[in-house]
Amino acid sequence: MNICILDNDILDGPMAASYSSFAALFVRLFERVGAQWTFTAFQTPLGHYPDSFDTFDAIVLTGSRADAFSDAPWVVELRKRVTQLLQARKKMLGVCFGHQLVALCMGAPVTRAPQGLGEGRMAYTWHRPDLPYCAQRTEIALLASHQDQVLELPTGASLVASSAFCPVAAFTVDQHVLCIQPHPEFTTDISAYLLDECRALLGEDKYHQSMASLALGHEGEQFARMVMAFLEQDATPCA
Asked: Between helices 188-197 and 204-213, what is the axis angle to 10°?
């Protein structure tokens, strides 16, 4: 498959030095689980897009420090592009900011989470045993980092995962869109770095609880295998 990654942030400092980009994290994740895909990344904050999405089999929308509901010109342009991709029923994976942006383009409310920051390892109830590799699944644990949330399931979407903290943690739209709030591409080192960055905002109790949660492990690679099967089902490679 030919995959377009719309990279919605430009990393800096230690994150850039260690991980290069959000796009690179996704490439590493899917390569670790055996994806035989070709990846091309475009930095949307710089206005970079492919000349046409027609040559791509699926689109990955990464996370971002920006708000999906921002009026920044590049975010407005990205929402326009995603709306067009939804109308074309293009296969898409949206993660964190990407998850929120797809939901917003579908008419669902997205705003600052009244529950506050979500950081560290979080567990979610799994509602879709029909999805690939999920027949026995009732829960999933992934690494999260977000202050915004999708407040209501978009019309026409099916709930995939939820928790008391994040009621709309993942959803699908038919067989072509899969969106999730936490970060399957993250490593525990990345989560630990982000926890240190927002320690003051979290407060000491939540900081230490979230940091301790990282030792429990996460299921990013298991989720990635499911994403591979979801995106590849009934896929006809683009020319």
From this structure: 170
Pairing outcome for strands 177-180 and 170-173: antiparallel
Q: Please answer whether residues 106 and 154 qualify as being in contact, where contact means their C-beta atoms are separated by less than 8 angstroms.
A: yes
CATH code (residue 102): 3.40.50.880
The domain of 76 spans 2-232
Query: Which are the catalytic amino acids?
Result: 96, 183, 185
Residue 238 has pLDDT above 60, yes or no: no
pTM of the model: 0.94
Mind listing the pLDDT tens digit for each residue in 113-152? 888 889 999 999 999 999 999 999 999 999 999 999 999 9
Looking at the chain, list the stretches that DSSP marks H as alpha helix, in order from N- to C-terminal side: 13-19, 22-32, 73-87, 97-105, 188-197, 199-202, 204-213, 220-232
